[in-house]
Write a structure and sequence with these properties.
The chain is α/β, with parallel strands linked by helices. It has 18 helices and 15 strands. α15 links the parallel β14 and β15. The longest helix is centred in the N-terminal third of the chain and has 18 residues.
Length: 445
């Protein structure tokens, strides 16, 4: 069989990628896209995005950044200061107190009127149209998102008569446009647009098997599933020896920190580890997270001298070397209903790397969330599925002292990584699917 890279070179499909999360080595989405598109001809991909994280150029060289020409607030909202209505603080100079008061006022008004989203519109600007025309795409690949992003996808699809490939990363359709007197209007528009795009799409991808099954039932269309992939053979030299534990025991969380995903459960882990350390059990927690993500919560996370917060690890060698040196990795998920609804089918980008190295994993969160249920079902993590400090402390002690448990979890993790997350298989299947869509030969399998 030809490799995906050879096929892409031979058929030269041209992918127009429309996204709120572009190629980078910091965010989960950016890393996932970088790994899935690795080896794709750089001249065959162009990205239209509004990502605030700086992009990388090892996979894609062509970027178009969306501005208010393409995405703008609806109607009378165009005349309202962006910072006021969106909740961003406008704060400068000697009059700093006054903007702060306006910020509070408009944030309350925004929440009362629109809930967790504001009405925006999409426009296929002359600049964007000319840029896309010059690129000459053969398909659109997108993660969709807000109404205006979906509207822009549809406008590009129709204008350039392109087949559409949708890739869903989180269950955002279940939580977006909630609360607010007029949110039902945006919600209705979201449901209508999303179902339309699902129906016209040439291919639909989910981030994991659980999401694929659920979305097939919800949207009455078939789904394949692709999540982040790891070049297993490249990182075998960093496989953990689970039978050895350091002193003090090194526990770590690596990844972004979001209030609607893992913040509260990560704080639970901080509290449990600090308590264990204070009780005479030598253990430390290291948090590696993008500063823009975790720094706002430093005071809640760094609860004592047993917890440290550092910037994310962007270098691949340093990342895997750190995973190998650690004794326990934590995978926390919040227990609140919003988080469960939002990420119940999601699989974090870091999971394949965690599994590849084989450092024992603590899976802390509700059992109905895919990342926790997979840890239970596939046996690669020790689960704690109730929000209980004593259970959490006991699990941390077990993972630190039970050598057979550590060896069993490590072996199972490495097996799952090799059979389900090897980039040689995942990337090839992903890229072959895009090629098939571009050439009109996609069968949905």
């Amino acid at each position: 069989m030809k490799t995906a890279s050879a096929d892409t070179q031979a058929t030269s499909p041209r992918v127009l990628f429309l996204t709120s999360s572009a190629f980078n080595k910091v965010t989960g989405g950016g890393i996932t896209f970088t790994n899935l598109f690795q080896g794709w001809p750089s001249e065959g991909i162009a990205t239209v995005h509004n990502d605030s994280v700086p992009v990388t150029h090892d996979v894609c060289h062509q970027y178009f950044f969306l501005t208010k020409r393409e995405i703008h607030r609806w109607g009378w909202l165009r005349n309202v200061l962006l910072g006021e209505i969106s909740g961003e603080v406008i704060n400068s100079g000697p009059s700093a107190a006054r903007p702060s008061e306006r910020y509070i006022k408009f944030k309350l008004i925004k929440k009362w009127l629109f809930g967790n989203g504001i009405p925006q519109e999409a426009n296929l600007s002359e600049e964007l149209e000319a840029w896309v025309s010059k690129f000459r795409p053969t398909l659109i690949y997108t993660i969709l998102g807000s109404n205006e992003m979906m509207d822009l996808v549809d406008k590009l699809r129709v204008r350039f008569n392109l087949p559409l490939v949708i890739h869903i990363m989180d269950d955002w359709p279940s939580v977006i446009y909630r609360g607010g007197v007029f949110s039902f209007i945006q919600r209705w528009k979201k449901d209508r647009l999303l179902q339309k795009l699902m129906n016209v799409a040439a291919a639909r991808f989910a981030i994991g098997k659980d999401m694929a099954v659920a979305y097939e039932n919800r949207y009455k269309n078939s789904f394949l599933w692709f999540q982040n992939a790891i070049d297993i053979s490249s990182w075998q030299r960093f496989v953990k020896s689970p039978g050895t534990v350091g002193l003090p025991i090194r526990v770590a969380y690596i990844g972004s920190v979001f209030p609607n995903a893992q913040l509260e459960s990560l704080i639970d882990c901080c509290d449990a580890i600090q308590t264990l350390n204070d009780e005479g059990f030598p253990i430390r927690l290291e948090i590696y997270s993008p500063s823009c993500s975790a720094e706002p919560f430093r005071d809640r996370l760094v609860v004592g001298n047993a917890v440290t917060l550092q910037d994310t690890i962007s270098d691949d060698d340093a990342f895997f070397r750190t995973l190998q040196a650690l004794d326990v990795l934590v995978l926390p998920v919040n227990f609140d209903s919003y988080t469960v609804q939002y990420i119940r089918y999601s699989m974090p980008t870091k999971v394949p790397a965690y599994l590849t190295v084989g450092t024992p994993i603590l899976a802390y969160g509700p059992a109905e969330v895919a990342q926790i249920s997979c840890a239970i079902r596939d046996g690669w993590g020790l689960p704690v599925t109730s929000r209980n400090q004593e259970d959490l402390k006991l699990a941390l002690k077990r993972l630190s002292t039970d050598m057979k448990l550590r060896q069993d979890l490590s072996a199972r993790a490495r097996h799952i990584a090799a059979t389900q997350h090897d980039a040689r298989r995942v990337r090839e299947k992903f890229q072959e699917a895009l090629i098939a869509v571009s050439t009109g030969t996609f069968t949905g399998k």
